[in-house]
Structures are given as C-alpha cells and as structure tokens.
Amino acid sequence: MDSLTVAECSAADPEGLAYVYCATPSGYCVSLSRSRGSPLIEVMAVDQRLVQTDKVQAELHANRLVIRLPLDVADKLDGITEYTAGLAESRDTIDAALTAIFSGLPGYTHRT
C-alpha cells in the first residue's frame, strides 16, 4: 500500500459530522467519522466498507496519525489492524476533528 496522508478533516460540518479522511495517491482510503449524538465511530476502509464501533484507537503524533483497530473490527473491513498516515492538514485541525470524533469515548491520545 502507498503511504497514507490525512487528506481532509473537519471538527463538524454543517450536518454535525466530524471526520478524518486519509488517502493514498492510488486511491486507497480509511476514515473515521462520527455524527453528533451517535454513540459509535464509523470506520470506513477501501471501497466503502463500513463498520460502526467504539473499539478504535487514534494517536496523533507530531508528524503522523496512527489508527488501530482490534482484529474483529479489522476483519469486517480489509483485515488491516493499524494505519499510519502522514499529516498534510494542520495538526491543530486534525486534533480538533479527533477530539470531536472521540468526545465521550476512550481511545484518542494526543502525543507531542
């Protein structure tokens, strides 16, 4: 797989959806999103394969985002349990989006 890059993110669009979208130059993608009021995070991989779960972890580092899924969740998508994406967006923007996505849920770590 080509290297992933955080291509787009938002702490809340007009419909109240917070998301982080990562993609490769060849079109492979993975995203995390959560609608306001939803108890679960939606994880999408590859070609619109979706799973809603509260078993996702994200770590934001100075130069990368690491997303981890347990095997039972990964198997419902494409079998990959860990994604690492470079940061093309502002780190503060990505942090705001992840903070909104994980609001009230465990699993988000902001590292310096």
Describe the 3D structure.
The protein is mostly beta strands. The protein has one domain. It is built from two helices and nine strands. The protein is globular and about 30 Å long.
List keywords for this structure.
mainly beta; 2 helices; 44% strand
Query: What gyration radius follows from the Cα positions, in whole Å?
Result: 13 Å
pLDDT average, as an integer? 90
- Give the topology string: H per helix, E per strand: EEEEEEEHEHE
Treating each run of at least 4 consecutive H or I residues as one helix, how many helices? 2
Structurally, how many domains make up the residues? 1
β-strand percent reads 35-45%
Termini gap: 27 Å
Strand order of the largest sheet: 5-4-3-2-1-8-7-6-9
For the biggest sheet, the summary is:
9 strands, mixed
Total beta strand runs: 9
Shape: globular
Low-pLDDT regions: none
Helix fraction, binned, reads: 10-25%
Question: Which class do the helix and strand fractions yield?
Answer: mainly beta
